[in-house]
């Protein structure tokens, strides 16, 4: 829980904890994480919960699913996927029609059904596929494995159907008009003829692109650092003029804008670190680069 909620952010300690849990899981050949790895001490549980493992003192409850998958996804995503697969395999056997599973025999027990049985799949979508619908953006933060490379998902977000493509170090989000591709986590938001790109997990847009007409535009991010921001864009034929607003720059600073490695103009950011420029597209593929002077 400390790892999943970000309280434990020490890399070595995280590794020690997760590796230790997996060693015990392999030793007992458990298909899913139990509520606790080791027995309660005397006085920590009710008398009927002993001897270990019994009910909350060591049995398997699937409500751990989303948190367990999240904890492993950013460390060893293959292990996270392993336990999602185990739950799906168990579902194929018995429909997960039990409250919990006994640890010793891994047999289904209890008939007071808990909705936690679905949480491994919640973890799959949130932590492995990286789908995070937030209040002002769709944040994509995948941790996929090679076997999941090539996955495509359809996801409804604020009355738009988004297409999400996931490959190793290449992620994309698209609606009917716009598409953004990046090699790392990013945020996407679009309204009529306007696209917002959020670098990483920033809460404010890093780039806004406004168009004159409702035509397809793909933007592929190449770099986004203090010294250089660069992206490839692939506009539909006859796209017309684009207006770019780049945020989070150094205030009152000079920047060079080049298009296809040719100087376009030099422009200064305002006192809030915002820079706006316009450009009429002429080619099917164009590299836009913004470099600080």
How would you concisely characterize the structure shown here?
This protein has 293 residues and is an alpha+beta fold. It is built from four helices and 18 strands.
Question: What are the defining features of this structure?
Answer:
alpha+beta, 293 residues, 4 helices, 7-stranded antiparallel β-sheet
- For this structure, the quaternary state is single chain
How does the major sheet shape up? Answer: 9 strands, mixed
* Distinct helical segment count: 4
- Uncertain regions: pLDDT < 50 for 5+ in a row? none
Mean pLDDT: 95
The largest beta-sheet arranges its strands as 5-6-7-8-12-13-18-15-16
Give a structural overview.
- There is one protein chain.
- The chain is of the alpha+beta class and 293 residues long.
- The protein has four helices and 18 strands.
- The strands form three sheets. Strands 5-6-7-8-12-13-18-15-16 form a nine-stranded mixed sheet, with no helix packed on it. Strands 3-4-9-10-11-14-17 form a seven-stranded antiparallel sheet.
- Strand 3 (131-133) and strand 4 (138-140) form a beta hairpin.
- Helix 3 runs antiparallel to helix 4.
- The mean pLDDT is 95.
Question: Helix and strand layout, with pairings?
Answer:
Elements: H1 11-28, H2 65-73, H3 77-94, E1 100-101, E2 108-109, H4 119-128, E3 131-133, E4 138-140, E5 151-157, E6 160-167, E7 170-174, E8 178-182, E9 186-191, E10 194-199, E11 207-211, E12 217-224, E13 228-235, E14 241-246, E15 254-259, E16 262-268, E17 275-280, E18 286-292
Parallel strand pairs: 8-12
Antiparallel strand pairs: 1-2, 3-4, 4-9, 5-6, 6-7, 7-8, 9-10, 10-11, 11-14, 12-13, 13-18, 14-17, 15-16, 15-18
Helix pairs in contact: 2-3, 2-4, 3-4
């Amino acid at each position: 829980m400390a790892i999943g909620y970000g309280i434990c952010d020490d890399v070595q300690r995280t590794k020690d904890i997760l590796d230790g849990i997996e060693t015990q899981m392999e030793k007992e050949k458990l298909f899913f994480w139990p509520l606790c790895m080791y027995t309660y001490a005397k006085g920590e549980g009710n008398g009927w919960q002993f001897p270990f493992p019994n009910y909350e003192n060591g049995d398997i409850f699937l409500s751990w699913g989303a948190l367990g998958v999240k904890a492993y996804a950013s460390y060893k995503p293959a292990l996270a996927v392993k336990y999602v697969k185990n739950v799906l395999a168990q579902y194929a056997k018995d429909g997960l029609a039990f409250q919990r599973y006994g640890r010793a025999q891994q047999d289904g027990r209890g008939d007071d059904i808990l909705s936690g049985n679905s949480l491994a799949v919640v973890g799959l979508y949130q932590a492995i596929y990286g789908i995070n619908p937030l209040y002002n953006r769709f944040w994509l933060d995948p941790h996929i494995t090679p076997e999941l490379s090539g996955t495509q998902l359809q996801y409804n977000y604020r009355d738009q159907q988004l297409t999400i493509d996931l490959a190793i170090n290449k992620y994309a989000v698209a609606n009917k008009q716009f598409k953004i591709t990046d090699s790392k986590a990013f945020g996407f938001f679009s309204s009529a003829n306007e696209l917002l790109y959020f670098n990483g997990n920033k809460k404010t847009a890093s780039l806004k692109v406004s168009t004159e007409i409702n035509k397809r535009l793909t933007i592929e991010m190449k770099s986004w650092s203090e010294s250089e921001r660069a992206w490839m864009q692939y506009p539909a034929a006859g796209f017309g003029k684009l207006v770019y607003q780049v945020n989070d720059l150094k205030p009152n600073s000079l920047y060079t804008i080049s298009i296809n490695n040719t100087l376009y103009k030099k422009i200064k950011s305002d006192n809030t670190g915002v820079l706006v420029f316009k450009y009429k597209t002429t080619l099917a593929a164009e590299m836009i680069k913004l470099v600080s002077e």
